[in-house]
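ok so for the tutorial part 2 we go from a plain amino acid sequence to predicted C-alpha cells. step 1 is just haveing the sequence, like this:
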Amino acid sequence: MIKYELVIYWSEEDNAFIVEVPELAGCMADGQTYQEAVKNAEIIIQEWIETAQANGRSIPVPKNRLMSIEK
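step 2 — the prediction. this is what the C-alpha cells look like for a chain of 71 residues:
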C-alpha cells in the first residue's frame, strides 16, 4: 500500500491529470482520468523506490500527514 502524499491536479496544457509525489524527488505521473493518474502514480512510486534501492540511495519514510480523530 502506498502511503506517500499525492498532489493531484488537472493540467490544461497537458490535457491530463498530473500527480506529484512531493516526498520523492522528481516522482510524477499523469493520466487521462483521476483514477488512471493515481494508478500510474502507484506504479511510478514503486519504480522510484526500486531504483533508489538499486542505487543505494535512502528512501524517505512517508510523513503520514493525515491526523486521526480520536473519540
